[in-house]
Amino acid sequence: MASSTPYTVRWGILATGWIAETFTKDLLTNPATRDVHDIRHEVVAVSSSSSQQRAVDFINNVKAPSTTKAYGSYYELVADQDVDIIYVATPHSHHFQNAMLALEAGKNVLCEKSLTVTAAQTRKLIETARAKNLFFMEAVWTRYFPLSIKVRELITSGAIGNVYRTIADLSIGRDAPEGKIDFPDSNRMVNTELAGGALLDLGIYALTWVFQSLYHTQPEDEKEAPNVIAAINTYQVTGADETTSIILQFPKHKSHGIALTSLRVSSDPDEQGTAGAAIRIQGSSGEIQVLGPAYRPTGYKLITRDSAGKAELVEFTIPKDPERDWGHGMFWEADEAARCVRDGQKESKTLPWSESIVIMEVMDEALRQGGVTYPEVISTDVFDPQSPLNTGKR
Ligand SMILES: NC(=O)C1=CN([C@@H]2O[C@H](COP(=O)(O)OP(=O)(O)OC[C@H]3O[C@@H](n4cnc5c(N)ncnc54)[C@H](OP(=O)(O)O)[C@@H]3O)[C@@H](O)[C@H]2O)C=CC1
Ligand SMILES: O=C1OC[C@@H](O)[C@H](O)[C@H]1O
Q1: Are residues 174 and 136 located together in one domain of the fold?
Q2: What residues contact 348, with CB distance under 8 A and at least 6 apart?
Q3: Upstream peptide bond of 293 is cis (omega within 30 degrees of 0)
Q4: pLDDT tens for residues 265-319?
Q5: pTM
Q6: Which of 104, 106, 170, 351 could cross-link to 205 by cystine, CB 3.0-4.6 Å?
Q7: Domains contained in the chain, number
């Protein structure tokens, strides 16, 4: 019989930026508010490469328990014996070195998207997790949304017949005068030293929908990596990709995925959803339209030949913890990680290691075709504990 005591997973937070704060607040929400009763999360330590004070401020800001430890370096966090799993929330440039630091110290890891800068780095992390028998997962939170689960079920149950095409867009209109993009050149969105660019930051979500609908749902023995054709415009100021369009062809399945991303135009110009579905999953007998944003979808429509203009929008709301007045939707991926740690699973079935590798290979290939390159210090697949990416020396 299942135990009625929830399993507690103890988290260490590596970095104190925007998403670290959002994710940690989700960890601190009451799981019962999303009807989860088998696991619970504890935030036991937070680390900042900038200063210990920054970690202290973070803990106060998110209203974590007063017992939460504050560290002024990533090294102290990965050595903490009370931490079960580390959430890596640095810019993508840092993920490889930071996640390796944690894995080498024997810690399970949930690492933000995009998982790494190159596919070779992803392979190295997975080899290390496998060799050390540790849990490792790419934090693509969208995959764990109840809406994503429902859409995958609709596809595998044949609700739209054979799925032949998916078109997915995540673009944010930050066009500025004189050819500029409305981010400071040093911002991680456009700074190649931080692996900036539309594809690694936003395009990953368009690819997530292509992969959820055309690859993940393929039977295991029929899995087929796609051919890739990419067009990329680079930002004249920094060399990062500003508009990237990828066609993914799955020849055996006769299907195409079209993944779009841009910093110049928006997939939702009025931020009201007026522009229509951000994602269209098209099958032989109908289509599923998902309302964006692609990273935090809000509803779907199932349109079939029988819909006769009456297809209804099925909305999904993200539960809030009334006590904290908070709920962003990142808790579902945290719940998945906690259950995997509890059950001794090293990878998530919803985003297996092999799939993360294929997705990184697609992004590698697209960037290669577009001539985008990143500095050696962030693209090397040689682990260096003393890398500036680990010490925080900027
Ligand atoms: N899942 C999601 O919805 C989202 C995911 N992300 C992903 O999370 C990651 C972080 O993004 P975000 O939180 O927006 O970024 P921020 O710039 O807000 O935070 C990044 C943090 O990383 C640490 N850091 C270490 N070295 C550097 C450096 N050289 N430059 C900047 N920061 C550094 C800092 O923390 P400290 O000083 O404490 O070490 C900093 O606060 C990215 O990979 C991004 O793709 C981002 C937004 C949404
Ligand atoms: O992951 C993300 O989702 C939300 C976006 O605003 C952000 O740039 C990106 O990193």
Answers
A1: no
A2: 137, 336, 337, 340
A3: yes
A4: 999 999 988 999 999 999 999 999 999 999 999 999 999 999 999 999 999 999 9
A5: 0.98
A6: 170
A7: 2
